[in-house]
C-alpha cells in the first residue's frame, strides 16, 4: 500500500482524451483517496475550472496532446482564469522542447508516457506539498485556448497564437513585472530569434485588445527596460 496522496482527500482534475488512460488514471487515483474529476479536452478542463471555481482543485494532470487544443495553451488559460494549483503535464513527446515550453506555459512538473501510476502518485504528492504560493485574484478577462480568443465584458477579441501566449504569460502573473526574456520565451517557445522591438509591437496590439475587451481598470503597464505587467 502506498497510502493516500495527502491526509486530506485532494481534488485532482485529470484532462486526458484517451478514454482508456483516463479511466485507468481516475480509478488508480481514487484508490489513493484522491477525489477525481475528469475532462477529455481543453474546453472540458476550462469548463470544469470555471464551473467549480479556480480554487476547487488541488492539482491538475494535463495531457499536452489534446484534440481541441495544445495542453500548454490550456494551462495558460487555466492560469489566466485564476488557477493556482500545480499542473502536471502528460506527454508522449518526451522532448526537451516540450518540457521547457510546458514550464514556460505555467506547468509545474512533467511526466512522459508511458508511466507507472505509482510515479504519478509520487509526483502529485510532491506537487501538492510544494503548492503554497498564492497568486492574485483573476480579472474579468478570460482566455479561450481553443479559439485563442480574449473574452471580456465588452466583447471577444481574436488573438494570434503568439499574442495568446504573451498575454497568458502576463495574466498568469498578474500584478508582477514579467521580464522581457520570460515574455519572449512564452511567446516564441521554439526559440525563434525576434527583433528587439517585436515584443513591444505585440504588447502594443495586446494593450488595444485588452482595452477593447473592456474589463475597466485592467491594463498592461510598462516597466521600462525590464518588462511588462498586467494589472
Ligand atoms: Ca492525448
Question: What does this 3D model show about the protein?
Answer:
The modification 4-aspartylphosphate is found at residue 63. Keywords: DNA-binding, Phosphoprotein. Residues 131-231 bind DNA. Residues 131-231 form the OmpR/PhoB-type domain. This is Two-component system, OmpR family, response regulator MprA. With 231 residues, the chain is α/β, with parallel strands linked by helices. The protein has two domains: 11-130, 3-Layer(aba) Sandwich (Rossmann fold), CATH 3.40.50; 142-230, Arc Repressor Mutant, subunit A, CATH 1.10.10. It is 40% helix and 20% strand. The protein contains eight helices and eleven strands. The strands form three sheets. The chain has a five-stranded parallel β-sheet, with helices on both faces. A three-stranded antiparallel β-sheet has the order 6-7-8. A three-stranded antiparallel β-sheet has the order 9-11-10. Strand 1 (11-15), helix 1 (19-31) and strand 2 (35-39) form a beta-alpha-beta unit. Helix 3 (71-80) packs across helix 6 (161-172). Mean pLDDT is 86; it is low at 1-7 and 132-137. The chain binds calcium ion. Residues 17-18, 63, 65-66 line the site of calcium ion.
Number of domains: 2
Strand content: 15-25%
Number of discrete helical segments = 8
Ions and ligands: calcium ion
SSE sequence, one letter per element: EHEHEHEHEHEEEHEHHEE
- Quaternary structure: single chain
Q: Give me the CATH architecture of the largest domain, please.
A: 3-Layer(aba) Sandwich
Class by alpha and beta content: alpha/beta
- Mean of residue pLDDT? 86
Amino acid at each position: 500500500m502506498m497510502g493516500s496522496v495527502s491526509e486530506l482527500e485532494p481534488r485532482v482534475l485529470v484532462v486526458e482524451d484517451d478514454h482508456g488512460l483516463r479511466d485507468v488514471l481516475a480509478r488508480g487515483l481514487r484508490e489513493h483517496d484522491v477525489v477525481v474529476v475528469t475532462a477529455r479536452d481543453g474546453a472540458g478542463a476550462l469548463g470544469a475550472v470555471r464551473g467549480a471555481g479556480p480554487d476547487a482543485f488541488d492539482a491538475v494532470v494535463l495531457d499536452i496532446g489534446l484534440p481541441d487544443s495544445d495542453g500548454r495553451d490550456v494551462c495558460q488559460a487555466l492560469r489566466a482564469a485564476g488557477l493556482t494549483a500545480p499542473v502536471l503535464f502528460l506527454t508522449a513527446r518526451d522532448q526537451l522542447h516540450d518540457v521547457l515550453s510546458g514550464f514556460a506555459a505555467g506547468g509545474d512538473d512533467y511526466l512522459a508516457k508511458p508511466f507507472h501510476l505509482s510515479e504519478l502518485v509520487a509526483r502529485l504528492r510532491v506537487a501538492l506539498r510544494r503548492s503554497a504560493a498564492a497568486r492574485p485574484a483573476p480579472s474579468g478577462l478570460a482566455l479561450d485556448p481553443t479559439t485563442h480568443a480574449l473574452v471580456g465584458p465588452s466583447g471577444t477579441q481574436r488573438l494570434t497564437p503568439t499574442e495568446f501566449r504573451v498575454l497568458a504569460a502576463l495574466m498568469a502573473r498578474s500584478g508582477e513585472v514579467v521580464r522581457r526574456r520570460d515574455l519572449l520565451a512564452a511567446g516564441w517557445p521554439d526559440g525563434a530569434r525576434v527583433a528587439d522591438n517585436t515584443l513591444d509591437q505585440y504588447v502594443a496590439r495586446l494593450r488595444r485588445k485588452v482595452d477593447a475587451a473592456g474589463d475597466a481598470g485592467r491594463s498592461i503597464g510598462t516597466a521600462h527596460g525590464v518588462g511588462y505587467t498586467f494589472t
